[in-house]
């Protein structure tokens, strides 16, 4: 909690808190809080936070992946905190943190974190344009900046899943015939609920949390039928409320186990609504992962599933694909930047998450408030930040060029050879989409740029090469910078080759902020891993002025190309080898 200058504790004006003692009526047969109950509390708390900012009723549009880290027992206290991270046009991202408190030992621990999107609605119908939310603290600034990145990811989520699931690599997965396999049919559940006023807000819209709770209930029944035990819900995949539901709706909830892995199973749930003779309306589909734990809390082996023909087999195969995707996503997104291995294998199934990781790492680095000004020359400033064996630096100056133009010029990495002596060659391997590009960069020798400053450079006369993912983002809103993020990835089609030392970039890139129509503030960031520390620190200590020299060359390059028509990096269409990369 930060403090105002007058010493008072700062509190985000949209923050809402809810505390609830877990009673037997909230618990399941194991005396643990039912996740459905928790989802209702989380949704209602988050909705009140959204309404606090919007000043009008709001409905749940979507909920991002949720991972439950602990179960909660009867008698313990649940503390929920929700606040709006960012307001877009009619929608807002709300961050929710759930912790548990043991009243007897006075201990607290985190149960889960979630991010939900709410859409504002006028009482007379129609959406409401929201006022922007201005972040006040550094933590709020980071969340505000990352919210734009998360929004981008969730809006493409369903298309990406569709694309990935139609990928041939998954369709070729054979159903494994196991002797003791449980027929999926045995786990099928169908249940109907009548939406009453208690399940809805004063606008008669059914609470999203209530629907989630009903979905969790049928999913738990399906999961229990597979294992003949009490399963524990581990995670819920990102989902979207496709359309509204109202008081008087009959909600039909259907669930079945789609596939069982060694220690976990995927249960799919579908929620549809109808009134009278009306056709069914699809409200929501969610995929939940359950496991079964023994008395010591260790996960148990699960029986295999025998899917039904056609739809069942399709879902069985798609569950395998989703399982791979969710492992990648959890790994890439939830890891702290310094915990992710430098070079993560890139493929189409994790592209969107690597891109998110790339941009969010740079945004988090840029938002740090403990940069130290190291030196300044002709208004070019060099800042450093040292933390946990990682040294980062930032070079910053104002350049006489429109921000968008600088963005176009700097995001085409192949042009960097024109101004950066550390870039000897730069080949565009693949234009993944409008925002993401894969490059191979060859650097001649140890330089000052993170891309070429590994101690192994020039070892035995070898030059270095790098496989880089460049992710670029225009501003989401006025006040946001343009961002170009760079990080190393590995590509099966481009293994290290003889004659080159393969170097790695942890996090680097540009942030370009429009100062005025023709002036941009350009910041270049680079985060150096421990192995390159001695090389950079020598440079930073002022023994070389190459930082300054390279930045001046960059400035000259921008000035000389100020008037050109911007172009996007072009490559061959995605090569077939890359497209068919194993998922
Ligand atoms: N996740 C998060 N936000 C989403 C989204 C998703 N999957 N899909 C759309 N949105 C956001 C858009 O980004 C947009 O936000 P912005 O105005 O800030 O840019 C906003 O929703 C409206 O987008 P629009 O393109 O008009 O989408 P739409 O007409 O499909 O409406 C909902 C989106 C969410 C309003 C609509 O699907 C809906 O009414 N869902 C049911 C909501 C509800 O009643 N929930 C309670 C339980 S049923
Ligand atoms: P998909 O079939 O592509 O998975 P749906 O939205 O149709 O998407 O369904 C989501 C999930 O809900 C399915 O994966 C399945 O697990 C479950 N489901 C759908 N229909 C039924 C049904 N009739 N009975 C039981 N479960 C169902």
TrEMBL record:
Swiss-Prot/TrEMBL GO biological process terms: acyl-CoA metabolic process; fatty acid metabolic process
Skewed-composition ranges (Low complexity): 567-583
A single MF term (Gene Ontology): long-chain fatty acyl-CoA hydrolase activity
Enzyme's top EC category: hydrolase
Protein location: Cytoplasm; Mitochondrion matrix
Gene3D superfamilies to which the protein is assigned, alphabetical: 3.30.530.20, Hotdog Thioesterase
Superkingdom of the organism of origin: Eukaryota
Primary residence: cytoplasm
Record key words, sorted: Cytoplasm, Fatty acid metabolism, Hydrolase, Lipid metabolism, Mitochondrion, Phosphoprotein, Repeat, Serine esterase, Transit peptide
PROSITE patterns, sorted: HOTDOG_ACOT, START
Pfam families referenced in this protein's UniProt entry, alphabetically: 4HBT (PF03061), START (PF01852)
Region of interest (Disordered), ranges: 563-583
Domain HotDog ACOT-type: 12-124, 185-296
GO terms under cellular component: cytosol; mitochondrial matrix
Role according to the record: Has an acyl-CoA thioesterase activity with a preference for the long chain fatty acyl-CoA thioesters hexadecanoyl-CoA/palmitoyl-CoA and tetradecanoyl-CoA/myristoyl-CoA which are the main substrates in the mitochondrial beta-oxidation pathway.
Record's protein name: Acyl-coenzyme A thioesterase 11
Taxonomic lineage: Eukaryota, Metazoa, Chordata, Craniata, Vertebrata
